[in-house]
Design goal:
- It is a single chain.
- The chain has three helices and no strands.
- It is mostly helical.
- Helix 1 (2-20) runs antiparallel to helix 2.
- The protein has one domain.
């Protein structure tokens, strides 16, 4: 929930700061900073929870560790 609040605050603040110094001819830039921020937070939130969501990340190193530990660890 905190990430979505930060996303909304970044979007509002960036739109205000960009719009305050922008002429009427280049208003398409008003959506660039919030879009990039939203995309960045989306990627972070998706990768943070592996196996769920849109992006599926397999924790290969943890699976290899589980197999190693179940076979007795690194001892001969």
């Amino acid at each position: 929930m905190a990430a979505w609040v930060i996303l909304i605050v970044f979007g509002v603040c960036s739109n205000f700061l960009i719009g305050y110094h922008m002429s009427a001819s280049s208003q398409s830039l008003l959506l660039v900073v919030p879009f990039v921020t939203a995309l960045t937070l989306f990627m972070i939130l998706e990768i943070d929870v592996p196996g769920k969501g849109v992006i599926h990340v397999t924790p290969q190193n943890l699976e290899a560790l589980q197999i190693t530990l179940s076979n007795g660890g690194l001892t001969p």
